[in-house]
Design goal:
elongated, binds zinc ion, alpha+beta, about 70 residues, 1 helix, Ubiquitin-like (UB roll)
Length: about 70
């Protein structure tokens, strides 16, 4: 897989990423598997991972300000 921004090879890795779910809710997903560009640090999340991310985000209550979840494969 190549970076859609600069065309450099992308490396599979895990990282921690914050997702803004609503105006006051932020969810941090830890150990998220992503592809990162070696050159420009652009991050790409694969569709199958994104589906699970959306499922996890949808389970977080709107009353929560900050939730930290571990992404278990
Ligand atoms: Zn790039």
């Amino acid at each position: 897989m190549r970076c859609h921004v600069c065309g450099a090879p992308m490396q599979a890795m895990t990282t921690d990423l914050p997702f803004k779910v609503s105006d006051r809710t932020v969810v941090v997903l830890k150990t998220l598997p992503v592809l990162q560009c070696e050159n420009c640090r652009e991050i790409l999340i694969e569709d199958s991972v994104m589906e699970r991310v959306e499922m996890m985000l949808s389970q977080v209550s709107d009353d929560t300000e900050l939730e930290v979840l571990r992404f278990a494969a």
